[in-house]
Amino acid sequence: MNWDEVTLVIVASFGCVTLLLTQISEVLSKVPQIIRAWRQVRDELGGGTHPASRGHSAGVVNPGSLPVDRNGTGRAPGEPEAARDES
């Protein structure tokens, strides 16, 4: 083994270590986001009993409060008729 091979092994090993440390740092920087997202999913599925979820609405709409098109016009009740060009 000559000095060129030793130098090549040292440079390659430092490159691998640098790549490994960079990847670990990227994963660790995303851990808080993953934990927050997991807690939000768990709270939404569990009914929002977690204290940190107070004040955060999921925006759920009661299906009974949605407007229904009962007259067959394609519009919700009270919605103005759009000007259509039926030529």
Notes on the structure:
With 87 residues, the chain is mainly alpha-helical. 51% of the residues lie in helices and 0% in strands. It has 1 helix and no strands. The longest helix has 44 residues, at 3-46. The termini are far apart. The mean pLDDT is 77.
List keywords for this structure.
mainly alpha; about 0% strand; about 50% helix; about 90 residues
What is the compact description of this entry?
With about 90 residues, the chain is an all-alpha fold.
Number of strands: 0
How many helices? The count is 1
How much beta, percentage-wise?
under 5%
Helix content: 40-55%
Overall, the morphology is: elongated
Main sheet attributes: strand count, strand direction, barrel closure: none
**SSE string, helix = H, strand = E?**
H
Helix/strand-derived category reads: mainly alpha
Radius of gyration: 30 Å
Low-confidence stretches: none
- End-to-end separation: 87 Å
Mean pLDDT over the residues? 77
Write the topology of this structure:
Layout (H helix, E strand, L loop, with lengths): L2 H44 L41
